[in-house]
């Protein structure tokens, strides 16, 4: 018999895969519990419902990613190096858990197929953190004086669009992809 935390993590893992592959509405509780090797009462004990499972799955992961995001931006490295660390960490997370990345991509493309997931809350929090980061970088001379919110949105846009393109069947993300994004952001595209 599995330990309680093992069962909870198995449910989260299997639900992520199933939701990413089939969609939330098309995935039954029966499929989740069979895949996780647990019973329905176990799922209901930890999450209350399929909607509760989805909410916990997304909230816990985004909270952990947001905390890591904040720690990286608050680091001691030079600003462009911190952006590189942040970008590479996002790529690592996508590689570590492609199912979660696909799930978020699915929700962004078709928000009607799952419980309400307000990605705007996450994106706004990222933009605020990046705005503060760029403001501090401008003050210390690491970035040219510009609107820090626009810098935050430009960086966020480059990174998020490239990640979504990979999730939607475009060219896969590689270390070179991330390096190119950082180079374009830092140096522009003109010689």
Tell me about this structure:
The protein is an all-alpha fold. The chain has a domain at 57-187: Tetracycline Repressor, domain 2 (Orthogonal Bundle), CATH 1.10.357.10. 75% of the residues lie in helices and 0% in strands. The protein is built from 9 helices and no strands. The chain has helices spanning 4-22, 29-36, 40-47, 50-73, 79-96, 98-109, 119-139, 148-167, 175-187. The longest helix is centred in the N-terminal third of the chain and has 24 residues, at 50-73. The relative contact order is 0.10. The model has no long low-confidence stretch (mean pLDDT 88).
Shape: elongated
The N- to C-terminal Cα distance equals: 63 Å
Give the overall pLDDT as a whole number. Answer: 88
CATH class of the domain at 57-187: Mainly Alpha
The computed structural class is mainly alpha
The H-and-E topology, N to C, reads as HHHHHHHHH
Fourth-tier CATH superfamily name of the domain at 57-187 = Tetracycline Repressor, domain 2
Low-confidence stretches: none
Q: Please name the CATH architecture of the domain at 57-187.
A: Orthogonal Bundle
> What is the makeup of the main sheet?
none
């Amino acid at each position: 018999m599995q330990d309680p935390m093992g069962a909870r993590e198995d449910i989260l893992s299997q639900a992520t895969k199933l939701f990413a592959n089939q969609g939330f509405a098309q995935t039954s509780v029966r499929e989740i519990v069979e895949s996780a090797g647990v019973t329905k009462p176990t799922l209901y004990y930890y999450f209350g419902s399929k909607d509760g499972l989805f909410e916990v799955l997304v909230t816990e992961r985004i909270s952990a990613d947001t905390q890591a995001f904040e720690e990286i931006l608050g680091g001691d490295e030079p600003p462009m190096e911190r952006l590189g660390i942040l970008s590479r960490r996002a790529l690592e997370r996508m590689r570590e858990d492609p199912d979660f990345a696909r799930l978020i991509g699915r929700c962004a493309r078709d928000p009607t197929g799952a419980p309400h997931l307000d990605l705007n809350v996450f994106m706004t929090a990222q933009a605020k953190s990046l705005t503060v980061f760029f403001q501090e970088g401008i003050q210390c001379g690491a970035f040219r004086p510009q609107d820090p919110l626009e810098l935050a949105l430009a960086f966020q846009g480059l990174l998020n669009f490239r990640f979504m393109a990979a999730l939607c069947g475009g060219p896969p993300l590689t270390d070179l992809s991330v390096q190119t994004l950082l180079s374009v952001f830092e140096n522009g595209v003109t010689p």
